[in-house]
Structure formats: C-alpha cells, structure tokens
C-alpha cells in the first residue's frame, strides 16, 4: 500500500459500521487496554515472565480509527510500553485476520517486527497483509505477512509457523514477544475458514513459550464462543505447564459445552487449499526477506519516558493550578524510538518546568545534562 493511501486510510472514521457504540464502551476499552498495559509493565519489572490478557488483542484499531470490532489497539500500547525496556519487540499474530493495526503502527521502524499469519484474499476482511508488504524506510523487512488459503490444517500451519518463527527469533533476537492468539483461526469458527484444532493452535503457543523470552499473550478474534473459551483455557494450561483434563468440570456455563462437555475441538473434514508448492513459495519469500536483515538492529541511548502510570485519583477533578508530584523513572540504557522528544508526557513536562533559573527556548530545552540531544 502506498504511504499516501496508508495515511488517508488511517484517518477514516469507521465507528458505527462494524464497531457499534454500546453502553460502557469507554470502560470496556479501559479494562482490556489497561490489562495489556499492566501485563507489559509487569514483564518490564520482571514480576512475571509470562503475562496473559485474554480480553486484549484488538489488533485492527488504528490511532484515529476504530476498525473490525477494535476500538483501542491495546497491543500497540503494550508494545510501546515494552519498548521502554527492550531494544526489540517481536509481535506474532495467529488470528485468522491480518494484524493490520499493529503492523501499521510500526511499519516504518525496526524496533518492532510484526509477523502475521492470516487468511489471504481481497474479499476477506481486510484484504491487507500481502506477502509483499514488508515494511518501509527503517522498517523495511521488519513486517512479515503470511497469507494463507482456506482449510489450512494443523500439520501445514504448525510446520510453517515453527520454521518461520524459529528463523525470526534467531535473526531478530527480540527482548520480548507479544503473541496475539485470535481463536477465529480454529475450525468451525463462524467467520474463519481455517481448519485448526485447539491442539494445533496451542502448539504455536507452546513453541513460542519455549524460547524463554518475556512473553505477553493476548486473545483476539473468535466467533464460536464456546470454542474460544476452550482454546484459551487449554492455552492457559500450556503457558502454566499444566495439562487440563479433557472433560469440562461442572460450572454455570456448562450447557454451552453440550453435548460432549469436552475441551477438544477436532478438525473438520475440509479441503486444504494450501498446496505444498504454495506453502513452500511463502516460506522461501519470508526467508529471503529475513536474509536481508544483516543483524538485529541496535538502539542508541536516549531519554525514555516514564513507566505507564495509573493515578489513583481522577486527574480531571484536580485543581489545574495545583502541582502534584508523580513518580518519574528515567532510563538511559534503552532508546525511545518512535516520537523522540515529542513523546514527553504531561508528567515529564511538569518535571521540566521545575527549574526557574534556566532559560528555555520554545517548549523544550535541548540542552540535556547527560549530553544527549
Ligand atoms: Zn480475527
């Protein structure tokens, strides 16, 4: 997609089409986006090595546009938080739809590599995610798209997934991984058209976990809801190294799982339209793209914005003239790549206007005490 088209697409207002407004929409966004942000913060502070937010993974939302049932892109927010502590973040998406919102957010930079496995085709939502879309400018080769056809089964999908992800991790050396586990890639999904069993889907989660790299796992799409619940239950077990019994124990939602009351979602008897030749050509193109990356990109030392912080008071109710001291953490061992000095938030600005004895030219002083500019 041309940059010009990307920008106009970026600002289109899609609210009301497939993104209905409903009661407590803002609170809904706060809960799922806050969950992903908190997950990232916990990984950054090493209070866990794997963080899960099944409510998150709304990968279609753009900075100025809701899209495909996604209002706020919690994944982008979570990755931005991880970038405060990690030089490189790898994003992997196994939802049946293209992870376009995340790809778009990081399309021009090399500090995030996005890898999306999705159904291809112009008529399938969104029609983006062509294998030739590989990123631009500094981000060239740091977006990977694996468009697949209907009916892909466990064996074909997991083989391709493992081959590509192993090479990506070896080449890119990510400091953290974000894994979007959309369950609409399962067989029998109302919108999807792949033929994965829960075991096949969970095999991808198991494979990523084995790298022992800080891991943020989210949900995503999924439109046969009992199968979504089963899938993420099994994958929670995988992430906890716990095998769950196939029989679902009695609970208030048990009737959703009739008639067999088991965790298994078997494959369908459907044709796999992904021929060996097609999958092989996909693999060859991705490997070629990865070979263009000479080595894992480094980062320069810069000031990093403070940690994401939720005040325990309502900022709107504060007296705007009253100063409130908020914690400020400044790190210099990793870089903040995306917005440079413009990313300073309000709290940073509060800190910057502390000095009455220094002359500031414009809004920000470029003369930093540590010599950075
Ligand atoms: Zn989806």
TrEMBL record:
Entry keywords, A to Z: Chromatin regulator, Hydrolase, Metal-binding, Nucleus, Repressor, Transcription, Transcription regulation
Cell location: Nucleus
Compositional bias of kind Acidic residues: 358-373
Boundaries of every Histone deacetylase domain copy: 16-237
UniProt cofactor(s): Zn(2+)
Enzyme class: hydrolase
Residues the record marks as active site: 60 (proton acceptor)
UniProt-annotated binding residues for substrate: 18, 68, 223
Basic and acidic residues bias locations: 347-357
The keyword Transcription regulation belongs to this UniProt entry's keyword annotation: yes
Catalytic activity: N(6)-acetyl-L-lysyl-[histone] + H2O = L-lysyl-[histone] + acetate
Binding site for a divalent metal cation: 95, 97, 184
GO MF term list: histone deacetylase activity, hydrolytic mechanism; metal ion binding
GO terms for cellular component: nucleus
Protein name, per record: histone deacetylase
Organism from which the protein derives: Miscanthus lutarioriparius
């Amino acid at each position: 997609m041309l940059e010009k088209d990307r920008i106009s697409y970026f600002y289109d207002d899609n609210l009301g089409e497939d993104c209905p407004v409903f009661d407590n929409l803002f609170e809904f966004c706060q809960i799922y986006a806050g969950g992903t942000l908190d997950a990232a913060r916990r990984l950054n502070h090493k209070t866990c090595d794997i963080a899960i937010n099944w409510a998150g993974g709304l990968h279609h939302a753009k900075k100025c546009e809701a899209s495909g049932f996604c209002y706020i892109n919690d994944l982008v927010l979570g990755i931005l938080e991880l970038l405060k502590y990690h030089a490189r973040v790898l994003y992997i998406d196994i939802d049946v739809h293209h992870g376009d919102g995340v790809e778009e957010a990081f399309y021009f930079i090399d500090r995030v590599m996005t890898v999306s496995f999705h159904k291809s085709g112009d008529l399938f939502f969104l029609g983006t995610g062509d294998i030739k879309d590989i990123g631009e400018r500094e981000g060239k080769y740091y977006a990977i798209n694996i468009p697949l056809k209907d009916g892909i089964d466990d064996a074909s999908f997991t083989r391709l997934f493992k081959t590509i992800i192993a090479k990506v991790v070896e080449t890119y050396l990510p400091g953290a991984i974000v894994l979007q586990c959309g369950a609409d890639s399962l067989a029998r999904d109302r919108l999807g058209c792949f033929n994965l069993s829960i075991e096949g889907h969970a095999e991808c989660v198991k494979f990523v976990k084995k790298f022992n790299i800080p891991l943020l796992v989210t949900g995503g799409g999924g439109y046969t809801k009992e199968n979504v619940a089963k899938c993420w239950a099994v994958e929670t077990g995988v992430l906890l190294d716990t095998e769950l019994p196939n029989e679902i124990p009695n609970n208030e939602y048990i009737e959703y799982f009739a008639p067999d009351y088991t965790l298994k979602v078997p494959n369908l008897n459907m044709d796999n339209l992904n021929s060996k030749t097609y999958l092989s050509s996909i693999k060859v193109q991705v490997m070629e793209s990865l070979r263009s990356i000479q080595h894992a990109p480094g980062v320069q030392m810069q000031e990093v914005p403070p940690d994401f912080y939720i005040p325990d008071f309502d900022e709107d109710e504060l007296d705007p003239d009253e100063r409130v001291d908020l914690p400020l953490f400044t790190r210099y061992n990793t870089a903040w790549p995306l917005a440079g000095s413009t990313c300073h938030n309000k709290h940073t600005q509060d800190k910057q206007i502390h000095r009455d004895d220094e002359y500031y030219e414009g809004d920000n002083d470029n003369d930093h005490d540590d010599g950075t500019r």
